[in-house]
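Appendix C. Worked example: Acetolactate synthase
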Amino acid sequence: MKLTGAQILWETLVREGVEVVFGYPGGANLPIYDAMLDYPVRHVLTRHEQGAAHMADGYARASGRVGVAMATSGPGATNLVTGIATAMMDSSPVVFITGQVASRFIGFDAFQETDVTGITLPITKHNYLVTRTEEIGPTLREAFYIARTGRPGPVLVDIAKDAQQNAIEWEYNGGPIKMRGYRPDLRPGTRQIQQALEMIAAAKRPLILAGQGVLLSNAMSELREFAERANIPVAMTLLGIGCFPATHPLNLGMMGMHGEAWVNHAIQEADLLLAFGMRFDDRVTGNVNTYARNARKIHIDIDPAEINKNIKVDLGLVGDLRDTLRQILEHLEPQEHTDWLAHITEMKGDSAVRDVQNLPPDGHLYAAHVIHDLWRTTGGNVLVTTDVGQHQMWSAQYFKQDHPHMWITSGGLGTMGFGLPSAIGAKIARPDQEVWTIVGDGGFQMTQAELSTAAQENVKVNVAIINNGFLGMVRQWQEFFYERRYAATPMRSPDFVKIAEAHGLTGLRVTTREEVIPAIQRAGRTEGTVVIDFRVEQEDSVYPMVPTGADLHNMIRRPVPNRIVETAQDEI
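Step 2, the predicted output written as structure tokens:
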């Protein structure tokens, strides 16, 4: 049959299983939008292309499928860049489709022409410039294949306008995709598996470092079986949260810059680190020269580029984590590490669980109150997305995640503005799941226009704004390292309640601890998106904190007397 390039695009997307597209139309992708009306795909009109990118990212992370975002050429395409980089750093499978000026104008500075493939080359897993109609179908199939296989990541397809408009005789080719040089199905050898088993058997103080790769490979069951059989405690990266139940006795909590103190000390004292699907990011290691000096290191990752990139390891196993763990489990013998686990418990001391109940009667509302009460009130059975900053770290500390794929945050790039649009994408992916986004007053204002998207699309997400009147994390650094010289961090915000109401949504304001739980409960039973403005203590800080470049065990601890007392678990 004879189809235009735009029709071929939609035919291919439908056959790839695409049901939802997030985007914004313009002149260079108008043929694509015109053809869209004839296909069974839901289009979500965002208020900014960055919002479309984050929604597609949140959709991908919540669903496990490839997300799709669209934009026109020039400023439309460049507005996607932050979202593309976010997806790249966090290994999210998203296909970005942009319109481009007609092929005869490319390279002549035509209206709204931008070399988007050149701009995004460093922040995509792969990208394409399509100038011929015949290339659209095969290129899109390759794009989806690359995005979802191996280490997932974003792929951009830039399509010239005349390629969208021209018509050709076309028949869908659903055969296997073969790409020279791209071999994502790698498996470690038998000798490497045996070497890993020998190192595990010899260890007296082993520790598992679990990253997002556990979630991406769906290796949660294998990780749990491994940890329980070998009796090895598990620490997680920020993006690994949820891959191992928070309430499991072997779960130590989060590592790194704002991780638990006992976790960082355990890493420094371990004699074997088992790094599963994590990349030894600088926020995890601190000073690499003093990182886990006494530990041998086994690193399992699907991306060979990550092995020995940041931390030199004793054994690198390249392959899908789930498959690799299954190979190891075939021969892994039960073990006991009673003394090591007892030592870690002793390091926890009376800081094992933070108790936010016992505060001085100063009438202040703390961010920890809000997040702790949200966790307790919802039973933790909600999908949480966050923005970036202090509230993100408090959420990682106080909202205990027992289930996988219920925690979505921007880790590698640290993108402010990620929270709200990613929550909308996640809710569209999982419409029966209650979704909350925890955001700061700074990051929320970057993409708050997407409230209008939620209203138009009738998407129900609950927004918890941790409003402290500052760019909080930057203010904290200024307090610690710049003698409280608060340059450009005090922030005046609009009336968030009125902002919500202006969009036809529900807005609430909370200023005291007593109001927190009723507001959370009301949000849960209210139709449509609810925005809650939590006015919290302005100059509270996230503890512990490893200063940039410091040794991992050299943490800044909460001053005594504490604002938020750390007590034993039986008091919470």
